[in-house]
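Review this fold:
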Amino acid sequence: MNLAAMIRDVARRQPDAPAVTDGAVTHSYAAFVDRAARIGGALRERGLAPGDRVVLAMENCGEFLELLVACWTAGLCVVPVNAKLHPREVEHIVRDSGARAAFTTPGLADGLTPLVSQVETLETLVCTRTPDYARLLGCDPCAVHPGGAEERAWIFYTSGTTGRPKGAILSHRNLLFMSYSYYADIDALDARDVKLHTAPLSHASGLFALPHLLRGGHQVVLPGFDIEAIADALLRYSNVTMWAAPTMLTRLVHSPLASSLRTESIKTIYYGGGPMYVADLRRALAIFGPRLYQIYGQGESPMTIAGLAKTMHDAPDDLRTCGVARTGVLVRVVNDRDEDVPPGEIGEVVTRSDCMMQGYWNNPTASAEALRGGWLHTGDLGSMDERGFLTLRDRSKDMIISGGSNIYPREIEEVLLRHPGVLEVSVVGRPHPDWGEEVVAFVVAKPSESVDPAALDALCLDNIARFKRPKSYEFVEALPKNNYGKVLKTELRDRMKT
């Protein structure tokens, strides 16, 4: 069940097929698994033992993927870290995971090198494209560690929008189930498929590298999200699949280049990780056609809870949902006693499958709370209709309670985004002495557009109950976001305290 062994089998079948392209460099599958085996052998020579953690704090590059396979070859557990994190944030993850080794890239090396002397467990930090990294490739290749399905493969640290991030432990079984679910629900894959990476490999894009690697697909790695580079890749490759966070997909469809993209080269764009507003989704469908798949998941159940299939994007009412439970996945909506609520009523989304994490690293209290009763409690509020379509409302911590009534910010955000001059909006609650909380909307106007608060009021009054209407509108140049593009509502709430 070791993923590295399965990828090595792919290389045996198609040794000359392209595995990874980064810039002008392409490695065949034979070269890719050989490099991974040599790095794995070097890590073993340095004394790392099966189960040890290895942090990958790296910018997007082909080496990230070969290091994934190298670590699994040696029986090690990878801890990918977003390259945009501050060195202090990386230090917390290195320390919390007890990592013995770390890898980084030239653009991050100066900030992260001091970690070797700051974190007791960290014995070595190697930067790619240096003589140190080249020496690893000169070591003898090692055999694949004969690990079981439940061995740790990946510790996924949450984005930490509130408090310190926690490390969700994902096994080889979890990641293999995620891949099988991809084949069942999204696409059949083979060596003709191209996975284009424009988002951080430490997150959703890198996770879905796995179903492509396991079927012999070609990984094409870009340094970041660049619309011109995407346009160029679509001219060079066909059968392209890429990940887009909602903010990325919105930028793409509003770009002047959108109308000239070679969309026939696109097989699938999967999106998720935050609310995708209906107005932007309709525009994306007009440009890309039936090539969109919505993902609902989280690090604790990687990419695999519910999904809105390409064919389900045809029904206008279903665009407001995140689809149905993925193949092999159970999804329920429950009250605070973990009892199912009736169809249409709002409760917490819980899920159960072989994709569900083992728990949080070194945090038994948080693990017991999240996995109570054998179900993963997502912290997301949603409702499910009679057909099994799940509609997300908000994170439970973002719900506004005003005058005893529950108000779900996303519902208001959807309405405000219908205004042609509004680019982005985020709705939060502000303390009120009589009502408990009142609704405040932070609005980003489109360039050169003027937005009248009275027009926003009228839009709300035409579409939602009066008590849900924002009591004030705060116009800002940009919304604060974390490194995964999620809006930091905690920061917006903090602004209102000053």
